[in-house]
Amino acid sequence: MSTAPNHDTLRAQLEAGVQALGLNLSAAQVDRLMDFLSLLQKWNKVYNLTAVRDPQEMLTHHLLDSLAAVAPLRRQAARVGEGGAAPVKLLDVGSGGGLPGVVFAVCCPDVDVSCVDTVGKKAAFIQQAAVALKLPNLHGVHARVETLAGPFDVISCRAFASLPDFVAWSRSALAVPHGVWLAMKGKRPDDEIAALPPGVTMFHVEPLVVPGLEAERCIVWMRPVA
Length: 226
What we know:
Strand order of the largest sheet: 3-2-1-4-5-7-6
Distance between the termini: 49 Å
Number of helices: 8
Radius of gyration: 17 Å
Structural class: alpha/beta
Shape: globular
Low-confidence stretches: 1-5
Order of helices and strands: HHHHEHEHEEHEHEE
């Protein structure tokens, strides 16, 4: 765990954010999130996983931003996993430094999370994070999303691509008929929603409030239609 002087301050802010979001996380899960923040800082010096360098900004712009989507994901996972013995499978596309994929894996141990990235070093970082954070439900995949067959119950992305590109590239990996796309966006992207291809429908735009971040955020939920 990081011994930087601001570690306690960052942890207090993280705990306050978790509480503000109404997430019931254990002390061990908060520990893992802090350890992930330290890993991200350490690897970022060598591999340029994210443009954000400042630990304070990493906390708000990455960790808390990703945590804002956890409650909506949990609701969806509960619907998908109802009565099923197999874990809900999630694919995080263009995951980069593992955002939101690693955060999802920490907060939703019953969801099996695969983070796919075309950059080998980023996929390797996810694999390292899975080992270091003791997350058996987290996997780094070095591939193009178009080559993955799935099936995945939820396919997520955060600041990855336009909605039409995101669904077109990942469509073959989505479980049919129940699978959904979870796209984290800033402002509601009405132009992108209007440009969705036939056979894909947006069924909900869910506003998100990120503690400590004065910016618009939302999830665009989409599903295939016959």
